[in-house]
Amino acid sequence: MACKFISHEDTNQWLEALAKDHVVFIPVDDGGSVTFRPYGEGRKPVLDRMPVRSPKEAVFPQNETLLTYKYDKDPEDPERTSVRIKETLPKERAVVFGARPCGTRGMTVFDSVFVNDRIRDPYYATRRENTLYVTLACHEVESTCFCHEVGSGPADTAGSDVLLTPVQGGYTAEAVTERGEKMLEASFFADGGDKCAEAEAVKKATREMLGEAHDFSNAPEALLAVFDDDEFWDDQAAACLSCGACTYLCPTCYCFNITDESTGTTGKRLRSWDTCMSFQYTLEGSGHNPRTTKGKRLKNRVNHKFAYFPDTYDQHLACCGCGRCIKSCPASIDIRSIVKAAQARSAQKESK
Amino acid sequence: MQALAELKEQIRQALPDLDVVIGWQQGYDALHTSPLFIRSEEDIDKLVVNEFCVVNPATYLREMRGGKKVGLVLKGCDSRSVIQLLQEKLLKEEDLTIFGFGCNGVLNHTKLQARFGDIGFITSLENDGTNVTVEAGDKKETVPFTELCADKCLTCSYPNTLQCSHFAGEESAKQADSATDKALEDFEKLTMEERFTFWQDQMRRCIRCYACRNACPMCVCKDHCLANSREPKWLSEDVDVQNNFMFQLIHVMHLTGRCVECGECERACPMDIPIMLLRRKMAGIVRDVFAYNAGTNAEETPPLMCFKVEEPTIEERH
Amino acid sequence: MKANPVLPDMATIMEVVEETSNIKTFRVRFDDENVMKNFTFEPGQVGQLSVFGIGESTFVINSSPTRMDYLQFSVMRVGEVTSRIHQLKAGDSVGVRAPLGNAFPTEEMKGQDVTFIGGGIGMAPLRTLLVYLLDNRDDYGKITLLYGARTPQDLSYQEDIAEWLGRDDIDVVLTVDNPDEEWGKNPHEKTGLIPNVLKEINPDNSGYAVTCGPPIMIKFTLMALNELGFKDDKIITTLEKRMKCGVGLCGRCNIGDKYVCVDGPVFKYSELQELPNEL
User: Which of A207, B190, C21, C214 is found 20 to 30 A from B286 (Cα to Cα)?
Assistant: First the structure.
């Protein structure tokens, strides 16, 4: 991988240039929390804090209009109406700048689910094809960081087009994809020179800060071994408030709802983030609900990431280790300790 | 800490007659606690009481119906929510055992974050009650407690648990830092247009995760909140200023005369939206109109739960 | 693969049959004759009906691929979408996304006896297979239908039933929980719970058993079939879950790592036993 260098000043110029024909999402201070918002209107990137919201929303926004519809009255017979629908595919080109490697890695989970040999979701696929991820490697770690335990790391390139690493005076830039390589042809980039070694040292030092990694590799079997252990799950979920903070902010949570939202005779079919932590999520028309308790719902969230997804998609965990669910949980529920507890519990069961 | 040892002993004594005692335990790092559900002797030792015991244990009462005998370790502010629920006849006093103590205030993660960057970067924190010394990366700073504590602690008049069955340690002599709500006063100096712009910008940031609602001890509708109802449909799934604002206003209206200002809604908000401003405004109006402080006297009937032909606190304008 | 798996095709309701007090059957045709002509599906597959402005809901296509004049869906009124669908009349427009999900193993069942056990609205997915088997009658062994409902008035598909009763290549038994005065005059009219009547009929256990109905009925029917000695991999049922996208993306219909909307709705009992216990 060729390593280039861009100075802090040139980075701003580069963003300016990119913003000419892209919506460039940058992390900004948004009322005290860091969120991704379009570059411009004097917004400055905030790169020393992990964004609260995840970079998934550039490609998988909280609301996506799937189609619009319009009812027309039959002029002959006003009792009769006809309806016309229109597909609404997204068109804009975007760049996500300054997401962390964990957050961007989340996109690989979406890629597996939304574009594969069985299905191609055109809304997701179109946005993904039109969006470039310029990711920033970490040089500090937080108490909630565990990327190194889920097969990732502070300089992971998965899902990215370009990886930036902070060095003296600016960033080194490495292209991860062909699209990324094209981006680095811009005049703002110089040859990396000895900055490249500095970047490698930053990556190494950050990885060391994370310490040893807990081994989650037997998580799928362990979680399924305690599947029917209601006591275990009720205990793990006791503090859960059943809100959607964990799932909405998660870079890999992709489950959604579809609703029709109308205004008079027109309206739209909307795809919106949904959360498996809510009672309504699996509530059936008949009143039956397969997941009546929050223990069962928490089990689904954890199992989806650490058992079902890896079972379906080549053992990859659907957790990127960013820690957002831990940090944003009003009750400080820690997904790491839940999986670890399941591993311990199943080991205990086995030895009996 | 004297109070903690006493609390543990009181819980140990009471536990055989209780299904569960809800308190706090050390969380995933030094700056977080998480709710603790004590069901056995071994659990008691996990109990902690410190400036990070923020969750209001009374929030879990809505899941504990059906004659469960529940013990709660409560701060003064938390205990008000229990009293209000008793006033609304949503709880039975005989089912509850309240363990009280004197609270010296809790720290606010949002304020820490604004000052020191992400909470997860803070490596150590020491609080002597007046000053807080924080280390984050190579930064070390000492800040007055009042600059980092929760807003509610600045105007708190109830630092000691109300109506408790047991009280541990010494009473807190903590005085309200200020009798007036400065943040609210400052906000009200803005023009109507400025206020509206402020709220539009805040509501834009709401992700409708409903953490505010679910963290609220007074939100007893649980899984049947009208925000999730499709028939009738009050809210669209569109997460936009209009719908978010609608939800937040419904929430405020449903809490008027009930909100005990525990601040859990705002603390739970992952986007740090200052929704307590709305709550405090409404609580202020209720104080002005009905001379009522929610959840401070279990004998009192909440003013919006009864009808009097002439409200003694309202001056009729003929 | 469809270019846009969540975009419905427009269709028109040709006819509405009032089956019971809360079940209506809708016969629809795609507006685009090319779509209609090229449409194929297999018995057991489902479709999503859309009423724009209200939403979508999943129903089995209960007509048979051997009769492609129209697609037929039976809708029980339970919620927001189904209530709105019930208001639709012949000539009204609906959106249709179909076919979705898997199908009954009609190839594998060839040459074998098939026993159908349906309860209430659970008769809908059985109807499609039953009609298909009757239209390919020579390929299959003995066919038995046991269909039950709460009362005689809650039995759907009266026209079909009359036709099936008139044939000598299918055995039909009906049962209700609460009979009226007329009920029981004919030998095929029984009173009692489906699993009990099933044991009474005692069908040959070497063939296939296909069952669908309310969860509690399925549970006891599976137990009865077990008792009668049917093999786990020859007992077939169809599951229902809350569904939204119908194409395995939205997440809510999972049982473990399987999605009812793509890996189902048809499951063998042997497959169900492999799944985590989360029905």
Answer: B190
